[in-house]
UniProtKB/TrEMBL annotation:
The lineage of its organism: Bacteria, Bacillati, Actinomycetota, Actinomycetes, Kitasatosporales. Transmembrane segments: none annotated. One of its GO terms (biological process) is L-proline catabolic process to L-glutamate. InterPro entries: FAD-linked_oxidoreductase-like, PRODH_bac_arc, Proline_DH_dom, Proline_oxidase. It comes from Streptomyces botrytidirepellens. Its EC number is 1.5.5.2. It catalyses: L-proline + a quinone = (S)-1-pyrroline-5-carboxylate + a quinol + H(+). Substrate binds at residues 98, 288-289. This is proline dehydrogenase. Keywords: FAD, Flavoprotein, Nucleotide-binding, Oxidoreductase, Proline metabolism. Pfam families: Pro_dh.
Amino acid sequence: MLGPVLLAASRSAAIRRIVSAAPVTRPMVDRFVAGERLAESMAAVRGLTSRGLEVTLDHLGEDVTDRSEALRSRDAYLALTEALAGEGLGARAEMSVKLSAFGQALPGGHDLALANVTPVVEAAAEAGTTVTLDMEDHTTVDSTLAILGELRTRFPQTGAVVQSYLFRTEDDCRALAGEGSRVRLVKGAYNEPASVAYQDKREVDRAFVRCLKILMSGEGYPMIGSHDPRMVAIAQDLAHRLGRKKDEYEFQMLYGIRPAEQERLVAEGHRMRVYVPYGTDWYGYFMRRLAERPANLAFFLRSLVGR
Ligand code: FDA
């Protein structure tokens, strides 16, 4: 019930001001965000990769309101690429980008986002790493998949994200399950209407399994983005039955969520990539994490009222 309210709040400037100013917010944010600065994200990268985990870095900044902010996002990712090249981790440390940060929601946003993200994808390829395009709300899916298609003509390793809560996603999985394609499957984190998305969590889970079957039976490289123990177990079982080796798919989880499970999967010989967000614009990301899990919200509210 509270999820949609929090997701609506994630778009409210007034609530953003209240939440950002509350002193108790910071320790909660620190659980999910590696830091505000690039140097802090690199420290997190070193800590995680030294324990056998892989990473995908997200420079937070989805709320750009003009072209100069979109250029700042591009430049932040170019600086990130340079820092990752210096770490010498290759594709063990890749990047996730939200095209809204590159101007997708501005007038002429499709072309603008493509123009701004292309140099980042080029720089990533030169540094021996890859970029995955995060998926945002349903109104952006066609544009994001079209930009993915453009980028993949030159950089076939560019990754896609699909969200099982959308009715369209099984078809998208079929279209994206070809050779060389890297696809992260997630349940979906936005507040979507019943006209385009399953509203019942069990339906979303069932759709996740159907999508998983399509991707696991395909020729591409599935990336399973979920903390759900059932989805992890089903993915392992499917991989086993379909004869996929452990380096022919990977698990992905968010920074700060189920870290013991992340390490357990690595110890079992699985590839596990941690999604590491950093930057000052953490509000939308933080509110989506609260919306996903009542326990996180309850903890946060108790801290707010000082109990
Ligand atoms: P779900 O929220 O359904 O929870 C199922 C179970 O998982 C819980 O019952 C519990 O057992 C366990 N669990 C979940 N959270 C936990 C926690 N905090 N602590 C302990 N246990 C927990 N979304 C999107 O729309 N676009 C995107 O591009 C991405 N990208 C992305 C990347 C990666 C690497 C991940 C892991 C996720 C995303 N997401 C995303 C978010 C995704 O859509 C989804 O909102 C969250 O992953 C939550 O769904 P789950 O499948 O994890 O489980």
